[in-house]
Amino acid sequence: MNVLAEAGGNNPLIPHPAEMAIGGFAFLFVLFFVGRMLVPRIQKTLADRAEAIEGGLKKAADAQKEAQQALDEYREQLVEARHEAARLREEAREQGAQIKAELREEAQAEARRLIEAAHAQIEADRQQAFAQLRAEIGRLSTDLAGRIVGESLEDEARQRRVVDRFLEELESDARQAVR
Amino acid sequence: MSAAPLAAEEFQAPGLNLFEWPALVSGAEWFNKPALLAFLAALLVIVLCFAAFSRPKLVPRGMQAFGEYAYEFVREQCARPFLGKDSDRWMPLLFSMFLFVLVMNLFGSVIFIQFPVMSLIGYPAILALGVWVMVLFLGMKHQGPWGFFKNIMFPPGLPGWMYVLVAPIEFASTVILRHVTHAVRLFATMMAGHLIIALFSEVGWHFLFVELSPLGAPLGVLGVLMTIALTAFELFIQALQAYVFAMLTAMFINDALHPAH
């Protein structure tokens, strides 16, 4: 009852114009200082922060991508290097084989040459020996003949003539014997 | 406060006289305690925001961190659900409104001040009126003067005869009533909360100090305990209503920018 009686003259649901004016002004102050001046500042700061964080993330992603790229590159290079090494090994083997073959050929040629030289030497030695032998045999024969026939064949020219004759006879005998 | 402590015989529940304030200065009838509190609230909000945001750093500290927490709360909880990508454009209004209403409400739980200014209908009414005018303007600007009302009154997908019923109801509800309740909801919750706390503290005061009696004392203790419990509850309601007020504003703005589905 009391409440209603008091409410009679002053309905709490009817806004008082002075209250509205004061509230309106007070809020306009807030709107101007906070809404107009300060909120844009914090919005800018928040946007800057988001950008900084996104920038950091992007930088990290870029770095990772770069590292991945470098890794791929290295791997590729490694594969290439392996191929290259295999190729070089193969080449070296071929070259080695070739060198071996060449060396063998050279050695064979050298051996042949040596053998030929040896043959030639032997032939020459034989000729020499034959010549010496011939002279020796001549001398021995004359000595022998001289002793046998008692005739000194001191004279060189005669001696030789006799030896030559003797030898020719020997040779012709030998030839006839061969025939 | 009001009823005769001198007479002191009978308990008298506090009434609507709680919401009538004499002028603080004679000659300026309008300048009473709530008016002073309204300016104080505005000043407090401005000073706090200056402390927080006047020179914002990329890495927030102290007041700025606190202010950003409040800002992000309003943006994520009030603005984003309704306005989405348009949120940032409307945050100056919504953030100012939330803080102003919050401080005005919280004054009800601050000792020595102990009066939620929003429990006087004039204060929420002027805010709701401002939102109403702005929403009508925005609606007519974005949907055209005819399209705005057409979209409200003739939602698509109903049988023709239904519009006889729907159109006036939608018009009254969307264009008028929801803006009235926008103000009344805030006013009524604040007023009721203030009345209830005043009632229980009056019970405590009356039965423990004015008229201590063996029968009355337990009642007085109950009154004090209830006052404490309800003040805690009021703190929650005061914050909640500030949030609801800002959130509804965001919803109205969105309805004006884009026709309801």
From TrEMBL, chain A:
The keyword Signal does not apply. The chain crosses the membrane at residues 20-39. The keyword Coiled coil applies. Residues 53-109 form a coiled coil. Keywords: ATP synthesis, Cell membrane, CF(0), Coiled coil, Hydrogen ion transport, Ion transport, Membrane, Transmembrane, Transmembrane helix, Transport. Belongs to the ATPase B chain family. F-type ATPases have 2 components, F(1) - the catalytic core - and F(0) - the membrane proton channel. F(1) has five subunits: alpha(3), beta(3), gamma(1), delta(1), epsilon(1). F(0) has three main subunits: a(1), b(2) and c(10-14). The alpha and beta chains form an alternating ring which encloses part of the gamma chain. F(1) is attached to F(0) by a central stalk formed by the gamma and epsilon chains, while a peripheral stalk is formed by the delta and b chains. This is ATP synthase subunit b. It comes from Spongiactinospora gelatinilytica. The gene is atpF.
UniProtKB/TrEMBL annotation, chain B:
Keywords: ATP synthesis, Cell membrane, CF(0), Hydrogen ion transport, Ion transport, Membrane, Transmembrane, Transmembrane helix, Transport. It is found in: Cell membrane; Membrane. The chain crosses the membrane at residues 35-53, 90-115, 121-140, 161-180, 186-208, 215-233. It comes from the Bacteria. InterPro entries: ATP_synth_F0_asu, ATP_synth_F0_asu_bact/mt, F0_ATP_A_sf. Belongs to the ATPase A chain family. Key component of the proton channel; it plays a direct role in the translocation of protons across the membrane. This is ATP synthase subunit a. It comes from Spongiactinospora gelatinilytica.
